[in-house]
Amino acid sequence: MFSKACEYGIRAMIYIAQRSRQGERVGLKDIAQGIDSPEAFMAKIMQALSRQGLVQSVKGPHGGFYMDTQASKITLAQVVRAIDGDHLFTGCGLGLTECNEKKPCPIHDEFKLIRNKIRSLLETTQVGEFNELLEKGVLHLKRI
After folding, report:
1. Consecutive 10-residue averages of pLDDT for the chain (144 residues)
2. pLDDT for 9-18, tens place per residue?
3. Cβ proximity of 37 and 86 under 8 Å
4. Domain-located, residue 144
């Protein structure tokens, strides 16, 4: 459903929100290790998220990526749009370029319902919502 970049981006944002809550800035290497992603790929993703203003960064020996309390209210939909654009919310379930109400694909109506539920979920879920459950070890962000 999500591109690999988007998966890593969402996980990174949740990870940074958690660490920022603890008053920390997180380096690229720590993010990559913390969410089990390739560091070089993560650098490109973090650059895109930073450019969109979804995370802040400070250079130097005590630098890294962080979020203020307002940024932890960023929705998962904002992260998806920053990395993958709006295609998840508007695209055809079969990948057709010409699929709409007037010219639907075979799964158009059913997929539209699913797509709308996904949009609703992502637009109402904030990256900072998972902090407590991550700290308790109930949730995780990398393969175990």
Report:
1. 93 94 92 94 95 92 88 92 92 91 94 95 93 86 75
2. 999 999 999 9
3. no
4. no
Strand-pairing partners, residue 26, are: 65
Q: Give residue 55's Cα distance to chain centre.
A: 11
Cα 69 to Cα 26, 59, 99, 119, 127: the distances in Å are 16, 20, 40, 24, 11
Give the domain extent around 89.
4-135
Q: Which residues contact 94 (CB under 8 A, 6 or more apart)?
A: 105, 106, 107
Place of tokens 């695209």: 91
- Structure tokens given for 81: 């749009």
Q: What is this structure's pTM?
A: 0.89
Q: Which helix (H) or strand (E) holds 64?
A: strand 64-66
Using one digit for the tens of pLDDT, what is the confidence trace for 30-50?
Answer: 999 999 999 999 999 999 999
Overall domain count for the chain:
1
